[in-house]
Amino acid sequence: MALFTRKSTAAPTVTEAPAVDPALAALTGTYTIDPSHSSIGFTVRHAMVTNVRGSFGEHEGTLVVDGTDPANSSASIDVKIASIDTGIADRDGHLVSGDFFDAEKFPHMTFRSTKAEQLGGEAYRITGDLTIKDVTRPLDIDLEFNGSATDVYGNERVGFEGSADILRSDWGLTWNAALETGGVMVSDKVKLTFDISAIKAAAPVA
């Protein structure tokens, strides 16, 4: 590259802004997560040989979708810990006890987004703060946009599904038991899963 060059007299090139998809722009708005058609779950390895799956039956949240600039989108989710369900009551009771979530003292798990980005096509990533018990740490959630539709009741809906891997010990969930054959009862790695259907709020009356 030359250190000295003749100054160009040509007009600077103007970069055109990418065209906005009208269909996506129309999705812009605030949405309420529909808990009866959404699920927030997890998968964790048990005894080194199989996976245990569970979900949280009670949760609520809000999505702010900007179809013209996804970077302006955001999410807020609150999950009731006591609503955990792995299909076995005794195990659920252990999970909400002081050994794990201590639901009486810390009744909610929360997520508050700090950044949103489109990765390409229908793929997105939302970054935010996940709080479990009294620990808050950053979390990236990779999401896929499943589309939009108007249901039979006239509600405008959007759908997303995604996942994130965490180490539960990062949030102070450290209980475990050693196995005689080696290894531990519960893996540190946990996969969180999200399958979200959200309803668009009605536009305010002018």
Describe the structure in your own words.
The chain has 206 residues and is mostly beta strands. Helix content is 5%, strand content 50%. The chain contains two helices and eleven strands; from the N terminus they run αββββββαβββββ. It has helices at 22-25, 89-95; strands spanning 29-33, 39-46, 50-56, 59-65, 74-80, 84-85, 108-120, 123-132, 135-150, 156-167, 186-200. The chain has an eight-stranded antiparallel beta barrel with strand order 1-4-5-7-8-9-10-11. β4 (59-65) and β5 form a beta hairpin. The radius of gyration is 22 Å and the shape is elongated. Residues 1-8 have low confidence and may be disordered.
Going by helix content, strand content and strand pairing, the class is mainly beta
Annotation field: number of helices: 2
- Extract low-pLDDT stretches: 1-8
Beta content: over 45%
Strands across the major sheet, in which order?
Answer: 1-4-5-7-8-9-10-11
Task: Give the rounded overall mean pLDDT.
Answer: 90
Shape: elongated
Order of helices and strands: HEEEEEEHEEEEE
Largest sheet: 8 strands, antiparallel, barrel
The portion of residues assigned to helices is under 10%
What's the number of extended β-strand segments? 11
Terminal-residue CA separation? 59 Å
The oligomeric state is single chain
Q: Rounded to an integer, what's the Rg over CA atoms?
A: 22 Å
Quick gist of this model?
This protein has 206 residues and is mainly beta. Helices cover 5% and strands 50% of the residues.
